[in-house]
Structure formats: C-alpha cells, structure tokens
Amino acid sequence: MNEENFHIAINQSKIPLLVLDNKWHRLFAVHGKPDNVSGLEQEIKDLLAHQGQLNNDLKSLKKIKNQLMENIVSNMGDSEEVEVEDTDKEMAKDKRLIEETNAKMEAIEDELLEIPRDLDHKNKDLMFETMGYCYNHLRTNKREAEEIDAWIKDIRIKLKKNIIRKQNRIINNKEMYSYMHDIFGRDVLDLFDVRYEDFEEKASEEKSSDEKKSDGKNSNEEKSEEKRKEES
Question: Among residues 122, 156, 190, which one ends one of the domains?
Fold first, then answer.
C-alpha cells in the first residue's frame, strides 16, 4: 500500500478518543509517555475541557434567554397605564439582552461544531505518535529477545559440554581411586587419605588467610589513597 492510500484508509477509520481509553495509557506503563505524546494528550484534554465549558455556558445562556422571554410575556400582560412607559423600557431592555444572548449562543454553537473536528485531527496525530512509539519498542524488544535467545542457546551448549566434562572428571577419579585401592591396598590408601585431607585443610586455611591479608592490604591502600587525596 502506498503512502497516499495508507493515509486515506487511516482517515476513513474510526479511532476512539485515546486519552479516555485506559488501555491506551497502559501502553506507556513501562517506559512512560514521551514528550510528543504527552503534549498531544494535554492538547486533547484542553479541548475536551473547553468543550465542556462551552456546553455549560450554552446551558446557562439558554436559561437566561428563557427568563428574558418570560419577562417579556409578563410585561406584555401588564394593563396598568401608569406603568406602560416603564414596561416598554423593560421590554426593550429584555429584547436587547435576548439579541445579545442569541449572538453569544450562536458563537458558542459554531465553536462547538469545530471542536469535534479539532479533536479528531489531534486524536489522529496522537494515534500516529503512539504507533511510532509502540512499533519502535516492538522492534527493540524483538531484537533483544533474539539476542537473549542466541545467548541461551550458547549457554546451553556450554552447559552440556561442562556437564560432560564434570562427569568425566568424576568417573576418572573413581577409576583412579579404585586402581590405587587394588594396587596399594586399603590400609596404605587410608593413610594417604588422612595425609592429603590434612594437607588440603591446611592449604585451604592458608588460602583463606592470604585472602584476608590481601583484603586488609587493599583496604589499607584504599584508606591511604583517600587520606592522600584529602591532604592534597
């Protein structure tokens, strides 16, 4: 589909007002809304708020107009000659106010006709920005998922190889120990077992001691370095 046909098809599509859809907000739950999306969202909210205010103003003007009409009808029914002049003035004032009210109502109604079109344009813009955001993350997530999958496959291969190596080492030790037992006998082997256990324990203790000394030395060196920096 070429670009022109794509935009024609999009413009013919009915898109719900996104800012009122909770699922639309959930699209940005992980990474948050980018500035361009937040900006359009605020513009649409402002339009909706303005639309609501205009509707309220229109209702108020209709009430005022009805009250003025009632005043005129009431004044037309007044038969007191003494009040004729005052009544005419009141009726003229009410008629003028009705004309002003009609003009305000007409202006509001014209503006209310424009707002749905403005909302539709802004909503379409927000849709395009949303789609751009979503497809960007879809591509990123797909690429990272493929990289992780490749890493998992590589780790599985290495894991299988290391499992085989571990099993070979265990089997080799069992065979070697069995041959040593057959050659030298249980008594001799027990003596060497005790000797090498003591040797390994001592080596382990020495290693632990060396590590503690090394940690202490590194810690002292770090403290000396910090002190030198403070003095300088």
Answer: 156
- Express each pLDDT in 147-161 by its tens digit: 999 999 999 999 999
* pTM beyond 0.70, yes or no: no
170 and 134 in one domain? no
Q: Are residues 175 and 149 in the same domain?
A: no
Mean pLDDT of the chain: 84
Domain count of the fold of the chain = 2
What DSSP string runs through the chain? --HHHHHHHHHHS----GGG-HHHHHTTTTT---HHHHHHHHHHHHHHHHHHHHHHHHHHHHHHHHHHHHHHHHHHT---GGGHHHHHHHHHHHHHHHHHHHHHHHHHHHHHHHHHHHHHHHHHHHHHHHHHHHHHHHHHHHHHHHHHHHHHHHHHHHHHHHHHHHHHHHHHHHHHHHHHHHHH-HHHHHHHHHHHHHHHHHHHHHHHHHHHHHHHHHHHHHHHHHHHHHH-
Domain membership of residue 21 as a residue range? 15-156
